[in-house]
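Record 1 of the preview.
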Amino acid sequence: MKRDAAAIAVPVMLVVASMASIQLGAALAKGQMFPMVGPQGTTALRVALAALILLAVRRPWRRPPTRREAGWIALYGAALGVMNLCFYLAIRTIPLGVAVALEFTGPLAVAMIASRRPVHFLWAALAAGGVGLLLPWGEASRPLDPAGVAFALAAAACWALYIVFGKRAGEGGGGRAASLGMAVAALIVVPVGVAHGGTGLLAPAILPVALAVAVLSSALPYSLEMAALARLPQRTFGVLMILEPALGAVSGLVLLGERLSLTQCAAVACIMAASVGAAATSRGPPPLAG
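->
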């Protein structure tokens, strides 16, 4: 009995550690890197360093992809790069927990479309209600920045594409696709970061923080999720992943002093509840960390 409990507890802790790592990395990026190089420069440094780490670990050149695989990897990497850029542009002006909740509508949509079960109309309505509560309507108290909301929803769309393209790209090997996809993402976002941050991206003071963000936001959570997936059913993993918006809200509160209004908390709860329902009633694989 104790052995069975440990067999479940260990992978669950790995999933929670992965999500906490991602949110800690995002909070560190917003609090420490945005003031120096902005979200564009932060994205460039994070993705470039994560690509170097994954390339060194996975060494994908040992078996180059076919032309067909390369096409899917390019699309996967493009979605990954734009997703990261849009997410950082979103959290520049809206709370971390809100941005994570809005971004989660992307994989939620993929899960519901793939399953096509009648019950998913309920989850879709619940998620839509949550998004509606977060939209900057009129003169509501503490309205969210419209541009930040738009960037978060753009990140959600990119996450949906990341899942679709990632499934195709990973058919020849998930580790190889992840490393090459991250390299493609770097090719897309680094020019944007350089155009915005210039030589500031190479300042000695920022490189250690950038390396920590790259490890916390990409390299470490991906490794933890891979280890957890080997020991947990996909549906259980998908349900656990829904804790991420809550962890984002907690990280924003503790590390950045971001307090959500009651309406915003209710909205995040609606999106999380819809995501739990969709994950519990879907057959598809769960989303992985970006």
